[in-house]
């Protein structure tokens, strides 16, 4: 547990890239500041020649060698390393292992090995493997496919703290396995040859495929290849299989059999999406009418539920192709990891929520159980569609104030459009030396002269620039535009929040409660007010089981799919110290019940509320000072107002 917390601490510092105090980090991990200091010492010890975590007056931040520390295998005797070694021994021996001999080999007691075997049993859920004991011998029973699934789980466990790492994979498979160096050329040639066949390769997915190829190569080298495929290999699949077999022999010195070739080609094809392929191209698989119909209905429902512009034919087609591959992966339990899941969830909670809604609909229609990583892929499709359909009126408007002198103002307008055209739209140019500042009502004013003293508190939208635009001018305008957008967003949030909060739906102190108990407690407050019924509470728990609503390291926003509340309301729970929620920990729980009449407000409240609680300092201020409802609301409003 200690090493896992060390990894979580370092991963959080790497992700944020900012200074953080020991107290703040302790809250997020649910430990004491003293523990944080000991974790920092241990993490720096992983890289004796460098610094994993820097210390200073402001606290701690990730150092230059943070990545190396995350990838470090640590001491060979750590529980995780010993567990992985034990699993490899079980997988490599058909006759099983002797507990006492294994204890001697690992330089631990037999009681420690017995405890590790109990942990092995905990890893076997969903793998179709069983651990058999007969006196002092232990043996894994199950198919080769199930054993590889367990290896895949161990490899992902090694890489949880960082990105895809072939050295970590080699630690999982054993130091005598195929070296990581061989996979660079292998992957490059695989991607190139797939591209020549007309496929668009998903780089996020292909790295996961490389992991499965590495596992297959290792198992085949131990005479543990897969049986012949039970179904006929399709022509398109045969092309991909031939490429994999040839490249494996060339780069990995392994001859894959028919069963492995068919299995790996299926994995490759289900991780390749060719949305731009024309009907009839060989890179495009025939679209199953059942999948297309389900996707069309679910997307139409999501567009209406969240008022988002995604019900387009090209989006439905692309997502249907993805879901068709997803269904095939689900049948083989070959889930695809997504390293962007966490950042998508915290940065684009609204988009992720649409992904959850679509995933839930697909699960009901097609029976596909979806994990967070797979939901994140759907959310990426949603985000891509919304980005393409973003309206021009989301640009900030600007007026240029530049006293006329020949064509100077026109040159400046052209420079602004060229350098800042994606952020702002110039809708007017004032060439007078004494413009009527009060009449200029655009979001920003870009001026080459000092504004009049009468401008007053509206001066925060005025940016002083040079007649000939400089890089420093561009930076200042972009920063001002960011401030205006944030102020506008959070201003809407403040107006909404003051309507939805209620003093009687506030609870401080969630000690000893788990996520479901907190949901029932906060939901019960809203039930008493007549805002929701018990069914809404149950649906909120069901939504939580689909995907954790801990959208940041500090905030969970449990809610039901479907806006069925009699009115919109928010119940707040404060946890100090932090409490476990999903795979992380949170300090604030906001159970949100939306009514159908407030459908348009959903995006504002959801995204901006999460944005406020993504800032560590703001969270600590609200949690520590929000001792009762009035103080909590005052601090929240103060943070929103900046």
Automatic annotation (TrEMBL):
Q: Keyword Repeat: yes or no?
A: yes
Q: Which SUPFAM superfamilies match?
A: Phoshotransferase/anion transport protein (SSF55804), PTS-regulatory domain, PRD (SSF63520)
Q: Which residues form the PRD domain?
A: 286-392
The superkingdom listed in its UniProt entry is Bacteria
Q: Which Pfam families match?
A: PRD, PTS_EIIA_2
InterPro entries referenced in this protein's UniProt entry, alphabetically: BglG_antiterminators, PRD, PRD_sf, PTrfase/Anion_transptr, PTS_EIIA_type-2_dom, WH-like_DNA-bd_sf
- Record bears the keyword Ribonucleoprotein: no
Q: Which residues form the PTS EIIA type-2 domain?
A: 499-642
Q: Which UniProt keywords apply?
A: Repeat
PROSITE patterns named in the record? PRD_2, PTS_EIIA_TYPE_2
State the PANTHER family in the record: CRYPTIC BETA-GLUCOSIDE BGL OPERON ANTITERMINATOR, TRANSCRIPTIONAL REGULATOR MANR
What protein is this chain from?
A: BglG family transcription antiterminator
- Source organism (scientific name): Microbacterium awajiense
- Lineage of producing organism: Bacteria, Bacillati, Actinomycetota, Actinomycetes, Micrococcales
